[in-house]
Specification:
heterodimer; A: about 400 residues; alpha/beta; Glucose Oxidase, domain 1; Rossmann fold; seven-stranded mixed β-barrel; 10 helices; globular; B: alpha/beta; Dna Ligase, domain 1; Carbamoyl Phosphate Synthetase, Chain A, domain 4; 6 domains
Amino acid sequence: MPDSTAPDQAPASADLNSTVSGRAVPGPAVLVLEDGRRFVGRSYGSTGQTLGEVVFATGMTGYQETLTDPSYAGQIVLMTAPHVGNTGMNDDDMESRQIWVAGFIVREPARLASNFRATRTLDDDLEAQGIVGISGIDTRAVTRHIRSLGAMKSGIFSGELFGLSDSEQLERVLSGAAMRGRNLSLEVSTVEPFSIPAQGERIGSVAVLDLGVKTSTLNYLAERGFEVLVLPQSVTAEHVLSLKPSALFFSNGPGDPAASDAHVTLLQEVLRAGIPYFGICFGNQLLGRALGFRTYKLPFGHRGINQPVLDKSTGRIEITSQNHGFAVDMPIEGIHESRAGFGRVEVSHYSLNDQVVEGIRCLDINASSVQYHPEAASGPHDANHLFDRFRDVVLASQSAVAGETK
Amino acid sequence: MPKRDDINSVLVIGSGPIVIGQACEFDYSGTQACRVLREEGVRVILVNSNPATIMTDPDFADATYIEPITAEILETIIAKERPDAILPTLGGQTALNAAIQLHERGILKKYDVELIGASFDAINKGEDRMIFKQLVLDAGADVARSFIARTVDEAVGYADDLGYPLVVRPSFTMGGLGSGFAYTEVELRRIVTDGLHHSPTTEVLLEESILGWKEYELEMMRDTADNTVVVCSIENVDPVGVHTGDSITVAPALTLTDREFQHLRDISIDIIRAVGVDTGGCNIQFAINPVDGRVIVIEMNPRVSRSSALASKATGFPIAKIAAKLSLGYRLDEIPNDITGVTPASFEPTLDYVVVKVPRFAFEKFPAADQRLTTTMKSVGEAMAIGRSYASALQKALRSLEKRGSSFHWGDETRTVDELLTIAEIPTDGRIVTVQQALRRGATIEQVHAATKIDPWFIDQIVLINEIADQVAAADRLDRDIMILAKDHGFSDAQIGELRGFGEADVRTVRHILGVRPVFKTVDTCAGEFPALTPYHYSSYDAETEVIASDRRKVVILGSGPNRIGQGVEFDYSCVHASFALSEAGYETIMINCNPETVSTDYDTSDRLYFEPLTLEDVLEVIYAESQSGELVGVVVQLGGQTALSLARGLEAAGIPILGTTPDAIDLAEERGLFSKILGDAGLLAPRNGTAIDFAGAVVVAEEIGYPVLVRPSYVLGGRGMEIVYDSPSLADYFTRMAGQGIIGAGHPLLVDRFLDDAIEIDVDAIYDGHELYIGGVMEHIEEAGIHSGDSSCTLPPVTLGRAEIDRVREATLGIARGIGVKGLLNVQFAIGAGVLYVLEANPRASRTVPFVAKALGITLAKAAALIMVGTTIAELKAEGKLPLIDGSRVPIESPVAVKEAVLPFNRFRTPEGLAVDSILGPEMRSTGEVMGIDRDFPRAFAKSQLAAYGGIPLSGTVFVSVSDRDKRAIILPMLRLQQLGYEIAATIGTAEVLQRNGIRARVVTKFSEKTGEHDVSIVELIRREEIQIVINTPGGSTARADGYEIRAAAVAGDLPLFTTIAELSAAVASIDSIRDGFEVTSLQEYATARTALL
């Protein structure tokens, strides 16, 4: 379950706020990439084997949020920041109930956690949750490799499996699932629906399709006065409509949007019912598909908290938190006709780094979405106002509906 | 919004002389700004009084004024040039304060000129503490509780409320000048008195203590469309209580969670928006309580700062360059990121490495100064290092300081844990090494944290370094794994050698046999996300190197490392000029340096930049990496000061070609015996001299040649340890003080020279190509011999030397150049005493005066020397127009006179008791910077130099004079003239008697030591009461020594003009008439045109 409320644990009280983890010298580990390239380092976290798509994340802060972001399910995440774990782990900064990454690559793991909020070390959590990692490798070389050749299948082998032959390890890596065509929603989504009450004055309810939603997103929605109804990813359109929500929201999440036909169909049905929609990340890709556009896999994705995005309507730049390997295929200029019959559509935001679509707005129906993360966590709060915009849109649609019924 | 079309000319204000708190980072930012503005087609008018800077090179502006940065002079320039706008945010606090004055005096309005970069309103909001405090509170952020006091008594009252200790901060000062922690009422009274004096608005802020909190800085940029980015976060390893300029700092911040970091970012954006900085950068400082995370905003600077230079070098994001573009109206997304070429500047750099900056102090120059680090900045320079981990970056940074004992070591440590922890409690230079020793001796992280408040994470990293050291020491043999482990944690070959009990060279040999060499990574702003176009590299013991092969002919230029007294921006000027000249001549230039403040470490300056320590090991590895492709023509060592020169031998031994003067020839100049022979062969005289390696030997030499003697260690720069000694007991005392510094001994003998009293000292900068000598300039010192040339003021051309004397100097220089075998630059110091020309010393390298010569006469020696080093001849340089046909030994009479004046840092230092440190000049250099005054004659030029150095000579008031007996005769005429000019004169009894008998009215003032009772007012009290405007005091015999100190200390504390030599006094008196006339201004370009017309 995503943590929907603040944990009720006492903060760390020690004067020093530091917890020293064990100093046993870790054994060897190896990162093997699908093209056969190998990087030998030290075992980190749990030992054993893990397989997944290797991606790099460039944020210098926020490893806890990254690790617990469900969008990273199935991926072996490399942190380009050299020191990771310095501030330990705490309960407040969990973006979901657990760590989701398939594996973790860092150059310099912290030996000690130093922060007044830290309740445990990162090592503690990695070990407790069985996350296989590797440290002490040339992370920049791996990053440059992925940057030039694209994200690829990979595996980390440590403990007894470190001793497997190179070819055996490579074979295991190649046997792993490819990210393209992969649907991971079931793995990360809540099984049972649950709700979070609105904070302050309730303006209505929002049905949230949990494709891997983050705690911060739910909190921001509740703070804006929404009663938040979190639904499993397997829910039907009939069920959604039966809840009579004021709006629908699709969260971020892992996997290839091209493999999520059911969610696309659901979205189309709800949109046809005239319910306002807002989506983030995966929710942006699914809106794109629902409108009849294609999605495609980026060579190595956008994963960082320093990504400049232009808001075309205001001309302002937002420094955004991003984590996506797929994007919507739509020309960033001009107004386009939805091939699925939803009227006119335009790109509302795009990346200033590589002109990738970062947001879509429908002009004839009440639907919009962004590819990046306005909830940040981790990352800058520049795009937080999108939650306000969503609230305003919902309020406006309510008064429009009220006007019509009068 | 695209570029504004209504700005066609901009006046850029520089930061003036290098002082503590304001160093060559503003040369870097100003140079970038001038370049950008000109690229944008804007006419650039530049004013800066500092001739040593690269920005004042006439190539960087359309009109370059080396003039004092005062409102009057600026008005004169504005009236003449009529710029559309003034850019004051790249010249430090000096430029910002000048802009405020221009606004307040209505000059901006009068000439209809706009401030760009930051409006007056924004500057005021950022700088005025009360306005700023309110603005922070409005942004929903917190500030320390505080009160403004305008009198000392008011301050004492507020202190009862805030409790001790508390912080005192004067408004509108830089580098924390005048601020500090007060633990008691006595201290509070002293600091507030000082602070009120230094604050232009006579206000100080009293604040609750946040001592020991974690300290952070964010570097921000904002454009006219309200787009804001955080360029860099910087964390101070030394917690609150130590000025950020004196702290070890690290980028990015390493001990913040994302939530905390984003909170700081949110506050910063709110503040920059509220202050209204909308076309440039600013930095904001924060304190965080480590116990509960409470955040306090300490201050902001609405301008480019020392930290922004550091942030630019740390991230590859050129803040000053972008700030200049923003000031023309561009938006961040309209400016490309140079490094990637494809992404815009509207992003936040992300680092996949760690940057550590360490301060360089010069307390050895001010032994009386309080060495405790406080909120007043005391360091004179800094070194930066880049590593793939904090441990490696820290170790690289510490060895970049080139200072004995600055690196971690594992030798004998006899002090106990308790002793070490007690020492570490008080922040001082080198505390980090004390911490390392304490941990080595068994102190726990908790104990060290309790003593220092340094974050446990940083302490643990030192524990880690000690653990690695133990492993290196305990390993059965130095195998590949242990070698890589040590190198990955930043251990130098020398440190590994220390741990294993053998020499640095042996470690290197073993390492190379094991195939362990560093790779070079790239600073790319984006952690590898996009390909980088700029080869800006640092070393790391990682898997993959990023050095791109090239088939060009390469020249490596060694920079001069961290600024220190005696080695500063002047050397960077020469390195940068060499790089430009060699690049233009078709060479691929490769710069190695570790000083983040400099132009040389701008990725735009050379073809390739290696940000590395200037040690033999680090330099050899860069050269090895570059030798893998193309052709290494050689290494330039003669431009980077003693730092670069001291590597020549080692490089040569490793088979690396040294360009220009050979290491053997360099030794000829340094080695006393060999040099005497050269002088003998050339028929030249040196003062009688000898060498000694211990006290006994020194006494023998001194007695033989006769006291007074000038003593100095060999192979040092800036006159380190240079003193005039009058008798054997003083010589014994000298050896006691030098003991343990390792600068005198076998191989490094002490040089003992007969000291020439009353001689005129002359400096010559020249170049020699093996056949022809070319004089850059003959500079005449204003003070007599005995004062270090770096602290002495001098004139170019000389103003009292005859043609025959100059010809003798020229001939002598030629003889020395030929004798040594110079190929490139040569600096010779001469003295003329009783008509005899003596050679004091010769240095076959760039001198501090190379840029001064370039600005005064338009002769660019550094560029010429660089080309001579690669084989060009002087004849060719003349033919190509790269050198004027007539050299600097013959200056036409119509030429202007330039005066260089030293700027001394005495007012930055106090003794532990809070008194000013002594300020007399001597053979050991203590100035941090210099200014130049240039005008049609000596009095005018001198007056400008004084105006630029300290605000100039007051035109009325009381002159206090107290001189030694030997100077009494010489003061009669100057004092008579001062009286005629309307000054009142006060003097101590002995001096007053001489004046009275010569018809000069002088009020007798009690000496400090002769004060008899409460009502007897001594000179020191008169100075404190501001009843004295000018102080003249020459040091005399030992009885008067204590009084002299009291007088000079009071003068320094009161910021009064202080003359300690008769020569400088006479020059000042001669200049007063010209000040009363007012000044005219002439640009270097106008002087150049006039020079061409003369030929």
